[in-house]
Amino acid sequence: MKNKRAVVLLSGGLDSAVGLYFAVSKGFDCYCLIFDYGQRHKKEIECAKKLARGLKCPYTVLKIDLPWKGSSLLDKRMPVPGRAGCDKKPGGIPSTYVPGRNIIFLSYALSYAEAIGAGAIFIGAHSQDYSGYPDCRPEFYRSFGRVILTGTKAGVQGKALKVHIPLIRMNKARIIRLGVRLGVPFGSTRSCYNGGKSPCGICDSCRFRAKGFREAGIKDPALAK
Amino acid sequence: MKNKRAVVLLSGGLDSAVGLYFAVSKGFDCYCLIFDYGQRHKKEIECAKKLARGLKCPYTVLKIDLPWKGSSLLDKRMPVPGRAGCDKKPGGIPSTYVPGRNIIFLSYALSYAEAIGAGAIFIGAHSQDYSGYPDCRPEFYRSFGRVILTGTKAGVQGKALKVHIPLIRMNKARIIRLGVRLGVPFGSTRSCYNGGKSPCGICDSCRFRAKGFREAGIKDPALAK
């Protein structure tokens, strides 16, 4: 029998929610891993827990400390770029980049996967992000696959442990349409970087989300509330 | 001017102490990163702090949580293999392997390095370990180098961020002789997996250390106390 146990990185944002529903739709027995890494948008964590509970998936919230910050998502003295104050040059990397974030997340995920004998890790990284974030690009995931092969017990012993990136080539509108088909409760997802009571509407994350819903021709249920 | 700032992974054991002294001897301005990951051998952490202070290097102790355990170093219900009860088959991986440990450590190190603009990471992994631990083998470090190139801001922007593994091809005796030349206070290092008041003398780590000192023809100052 194929190993259908999976660790799913779940942030509470739109993409990882679709990633989780996708993994479940493919018959994976999903163990969700949620990080509290000092991000401004802590409401995401509550959304992530709710999503996992909704699918009856076990979840673990890991508090991780990045005392050196180095990102406007972690450092309250740095402004989060918005419509008026975007700090991203064309082809540049936005200040919301958290150094090594996805690498740290994936490292924990593979540790967890090895410990519970899971053969898969799901992460909702996708193409729209990789215009800015280096750790959302396909070549990074290929490199990380080599790290698993060479640096883990599972890899060395020839057991399958694969990082799945089902959304990597999709844009936001396509991800949203997929989510609708899979029954993702988008009203229970949260994407705003600023972490206020309601989405700010001007940070990159809010703008990509709004554009995605607009292009998909769907009303964002998180805003409708 | 070449970037001489480095993040050094420091455990308080013999190898990472030599790694730190080596980096300092090469003119690196070292920032030590010490992990409290629930290991039995917590005394190592005190040794690590003492080593960093001795060289006037700033250090950060990061508490990290691996709630899934999966290793006899973390799970007190699992015995640490010793002379009588070694669980390692020839070519196998010992139960002291912590899933993904060095990958997690390096991920934090690269996050720290990016945040402080360091161009180097030092880790004291070496050949004697890689007979058992997959994340101590040269091919793993080559793969991790690709992860940095493809998945970090520094890598993508062409800034140097290199993982240095100066001890990788050395055996314990050679590492000890190098340490003696560099003035490493071996009395302030600690390697026992069992974490008792004194080294147990029977775990893999104690036995490798004893063999190394014997082969180097040097008395272990940690035992002389």
Walk me through this protein's architecture:
Two copies of one chain form a homodimer. Chain A is 38% helix and 11% strand. With 225 residues, the first copy, chain A, is α/β, with parallel strands linked by helices. A five-stranded parallel sheet of chain A has the order 3-2-1-4-5, with helices on both faces. In chain A, strand 1 (5-9), helix 1 (14-25) and strand 2 (29-36) form a beta-alpha-beta unit. In chain A, helix 1 packs across helix 6 (172-182) and helix 6 (172-182) crosses helix 7. The longest helix of chain A is centred in the middle third of the chain and has 16 residues, at 101-116.
Main attributes of the structure:
Rossmann fold; 5-stranded parallel sheet; 38% helix; homodimer; 8 helices
CATH topology of chain A: Rossmann fold
Radius of gyration of chain A: 17 Å
Low-pLDDT stretches of chain A are 83-87
- Class by alpha and beta content of chain A: alpha/beta
Helix content of chain A: 25-40%
Number of domains of chain A: 1
Q: Largest sheet of chain A, order of strands side by side?
A: 3-2-1-4-5
Oligomer: homodimer
- State the distance separating the first and last CA atoms of chain A: 44 Å
Q: What is the CATH architecture descriptor of chain A?
A: 3-Layer(aba) Sandwich
> What order do the helices and strands of chain A follow?
EHEHEHEHHEHHH
Short description:
In chain A, 38% of the residues lie in helices and 11% in strands.
Please outline the helices and strands.
The structure is a homodimer.
Chain A: E1 5-9, H1 14-25, E2 29-36, H2 43-54, E3 59-63, H3 101-116, E4 120-122, H4 138-151, H5 153-156, E5 162-164, H6 172-182, H7 204-216, H8 221-224
Parallel strand pairs in A: 1-2, 1-4, 2-3, 4-5
Helix pairs in contact in A: 1-6, 6-7
